Amino acid sequence: MIAQINNLFRRNLLEKVASIVIATLLWIVVMDDQNPVIEGSYTVPISFTDVPEGYKVLHSDQPIKINLRGPRSYFVNYEAKDFRAYSNLNGLEEGDHEVKIEAKFPQGFELISVSPTQTQVKLDPYIERQMAADLIVTGAAGANATVTKVTQSSDTVTIIASRTTAEAVTRVIGYVGLSGNKEDFSLQVPMTAINEDGRALQDVRVVPSFMNVDVKIELGLVKKSVAIEPDLVVAEGFEVDKVTVDPEQIEIAGKETVVIPIDKIKTQPITVPLGETSIKQTVNLIIPNGVTTKTSQANVNVELKQKTAAATTAS
């Protein structure tokens, strides 16, 4: 029986081997025709690995193009999310760096190139900074009602952000809405870090993030709007060219005998440093005894100019 099987395999052996080779070649040709090797690319965002602790990575959002070679079916079956462009930041310190971009992709692809091959990054350390916590009272109390005191659980907050972002923070504010209240009330006010344009900065952590606020309200007090007057101290040889105050006026309230004589509220002294020709500051207001206001601060912008020779001589 075994001999018969051996004879069967040995009979026309060359023809059989040739048939197998031809069939294999035909299969390869068909597969190459149906699923040829082609080139393509995927565009992906860059990510970073091994980022040193305590740093934020600042970089451009330029997309990365990964150029690959592989069977056509691979390009059909995979999407951009299956590919990754990244840079390893292990061992880098604070400052600017140029780092290599690498690619990670599914098995079966051949990498042709990554474009660009390098990218600029900046390692920006996280810092803490203490700032004043400013409350802004909005809306109005009920009829014949006046806010006499706003008490907050802390005068300051701590912001935590990368140095570049932290330096852009000009104020930390919270809004206290009156909503027609006629009685004392308490609330928790969310605190937000903003830049000089008044835009909220999302990448800043404020501690505490909420401020406990108590609002005292009295009935029957007299109200009046008066101007805010900056108290400016400028260097010799300079004079004020332009000054703006936000808000320009403030509503005060209190007993009639106290409120009626007041026609303006002054700020704390603002000293313009020698050599500076413009400053922007948030300053405290000097509130007289027996007077209440919705806010105790104002934003003051000052621009200076040099005195002319004639003006200097006259002075």
What does this protein structure show overall?
This protein is of the alpha+beta class and 315 residues long. The chain is built from six helices and 23 strands. It has helices at residues 2-10, 13-34, 72-77, 163-168, 256-259, 309-314, and strands at 37-44, 46-49, 55-59, 64-71, 84-88, 95-100, 102-104, 110-115, 118-138, 145-152, 156-162, 171-177, 185-190, 192-194, 205-207, 210-219, 222-233, 238-246, 249-254, 264-271, 278-284, 292-293, 297-306. The strands form six sheets. Strands 3, 6, 9, 11, 12, 14 and 15 form a seven-stranded mixed beta sheet that branches. A four-stranded mixed beta sheet has the order 20-17-19-22. The protein has a three-stranded antiparallel beta sheet with strand order 1-4-8. The chain is elongated and about 125 Å long. 14% of the residues are buried.
β-sheet strand percentage: over 45%
Biggest beta-sheet profile: 7 strands, mixed
Contiguous low-pLDDT stretches (5 residues minimum) are 26-31
Which quaternary structure do these chains form?
single chain
**Total beta strand runs:** 23
H/E series: HHEEEEHEEEEEEEHEEEEEEEEHEEEEH
Mean pLDDT, all residues: 87
Shape: elongated
The percent of residues in helical segments reads 10-25%
What Rg do the Cα atoms give? Answer: 36 Å
Distance between the termini: 131 Å
Overall structural class, as computed from helix and strand content, comes to alpha+beta
Number of helices: 6
